[in-house]
Design goal:
By secondary structure, this protein is of the alpha+beta class. The protein has one domain: VC0467-like. It is built from five helices and nine strands, in the order E-E-E-H-E-E-E-E-H-E-H-E-H-H. Strands 1, 2, 3, 4, 5, 6, 7, 8 and 9 form a nine-stranded mixed β-sheet that branches. Strand 6 and strand 7 form a beta hairpin. The N terminus is likely disordered.
Length: about 200
């Protein structure tokens, strides 16, 4: 596969990696954030935060609101109610995005992130999950994080983010507590050793 190169000087685009916020992150919306980067090009980037749940909202609640299931949430396949609803980011927070394993693909609406991860943002995938025909692993996010051209590259160069791999076991882990530390551990980083002033002499 050809290596993609961006104008920023980064050796390739970063689709399928995790962005992990540095302690000095100045935007409180991204404090201790772990974001799965779903798309990255010269036109910008978008990702889904994977370590912050939307409080008191269940997957069944979302399905009910969309009239996919009734009030009693009856008929959902086993394990479906366990799908967590995440705060995916501050952009379009009323819109749902399903980050999922690559065993489900809709030719018209699924974004292939890498060989293990996909993103679909249509009602079709929700109906497929309810019918027992959806992906084996999935999380639902409300909203996403977005960056304009060059913005993410600049934030990385200013030590706002660290990059690490995005193994499916970490992405879909329902235990959100400690996911920040586990993401950093993949690249051998102890969060207690990180300085909020990294890169500023």
């Amino acid at each position: 596969m050809a290596v993609k190169r961006s104008r920023s000087g980064l050796s390739r685009f970063l689709d399928g990696q995790l962005l992990v916020a540095m302690p000095g992150m100045t935007d409180p919306r991204f404090e201790r954030a772990v974001i799965c980067l779903c798309a990255h090009s010269d036109e910008g980037a978008m990702g889904i935060r994977i370590n912050q749940a939307v409080p008191q909202v269940t997957f069944g609640d979302i399905l009910e609101k969309l009239d996919i299931v009734g009030e009693d949430h009856a008929g959902l396949p086993e394990g479906t109610e366990a799908i967590l609803v995440h705060n995916g980011g501050p952009v379009e927070s009323g819109r749902g995005f399903v980050l999922h394993s690559a065993d489900y693909v809709s030719e018209k609406s699924t974004l292939l992130i890498d060989e293990d991860l996909c993103l679909t943002a249509t009602m079709e995938i929700l109906r497929a999950i309810v019918a027992g025909e959806g992906p084996r692993r999935a999380l639902l996010a409300l909203g996403y994080a977005g960056w304009g051209p060059g913005q993410l590259e600049n934030e990385i160069q200013q030590n706002g983010w660290l990059l690490c791999p995005a193994p499916a076991d970490l992405v879909f882990d329902r235990s959100l507590a400690g996911k920040y530390e586990r993401a950093l551990a993949q690249i051998g980083v102890d969060p207690t050793m990180l300085s909020a002033d990294a890169g500023h002499a």
